[in-house]
Amino acid sequence: MKSKSGNKKLWIAIIVFVLMIAGAIGNHSDNKKENPGRESSAATESQAATETETSTNTEPDGDTEDFVTEGVISNTYKTDSSSAGQMQVHFIDVGQGDAALIACDGHYMLIDAGNNDKGTAVQSYLMSQGVEKLDYVIGTHPDADHIGGLDVVIYKFDCDTIIMPDVANDTRTYDDVVQAMKSKGYQTTYPVVGETYTLGGATFTIVAPNADYGNDMNDWSVGVLVQNGNNRFLFTGDAEEKAEEDILSNGIDVSADVYAAAHHGSKTATSQAFLDKVSPTYVVISAGEGNKYGHPHAEVLNCLRAAGISVFRTDEQGTIVATSDGNDITWNCSPSESWKAGEPTGSSDSTANNSTADSTTSSGSSDAGIVADASGSSNSDSSSVMVHITDTGSKYHSAGCSYLKKSDHEVTLSEAKNMGLTPCSRCNPPQ
Question: Is residue 218 located within the same domain as residue 129?
Answer without folding.
Answer: yes
